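Exam revision sheet. Question 4 asks you to relate a sequence to its structure. Input first:
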Amino acid sequence: MRSVFDERACGMTAAIVVKRTQQELCDALSARFGEDPKRWAFICPSCSDIATGADFRAALDEAGRPDEFASQHLGQVCIGRIIGVLLREQPKGGYKGRGCDWCAFGLFRGPEFVVMPDGREVPSFAIAPAPEPPGALVTAPKRIQLRRTKGWRKPEGAVVVSRPSRSGNPYRVGGWVRIMGGVIAPVPLPHYGEHGFVVLSLWVVEQCPDAATAVEWFRARCAEFAYEDEDAYEAWLFSLAGHDLACWCPLPEPGQPDICHAAVLLELANGARS
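Answer key, structure tokens:
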């Protein structure tokens, strides 16, 4: 799995391990989403994509797999595995569509487990947050600062966009980039001269001086991504729209600008949603 900005990422968020019987799981899904299994939804622990039974049915039909049941995959795999992340041939820069390649039965199992009638424990994704009821007061998505403070927990529904998640900013303060014709690409630390940069072929290799520059470069990369693959770009933003976004950057003082790439994502994702 690679991030939308071609940086290695796993993006798994912390979760409490939950065990429940198959009947308890169905009861919980029915209570949250109604009796129709097509509305039941689970959240991927890696990329936080929320997919319903209807989403999987549509993805299977689109992939030419109409004989498979959506229930075979719902809560077991991220929808990206159905849409195309596992295809051998991918567009330049790797998979940029919805979801990722995570599965509940992989190396990191779970984070939840369903106890079947025969006693087997089947790993599962967590149930997705309940949808907002009609007429409910909807608060604007906001940025959350991740913390390691004892007892602190990420709010339900918030999406982690820090490194190394799929939406992390690949540009680091002090990190090196190649710049040519408006393209800004992260590179390993090169040999550099006394003026702080070198020219390799037609690329200017430059060091990121501060957080504001890192955020500016991130915004430019988003625009480049939109130009390269508009459909994948919009699918990525749609997966973030409506969610609080969590990063390690300190929150700004009142009245001060938020110098964090998550603030850019909040603007782009919720603008795209509207």
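Marking note for examiners. The chain is about 25% helix and 15% strand.
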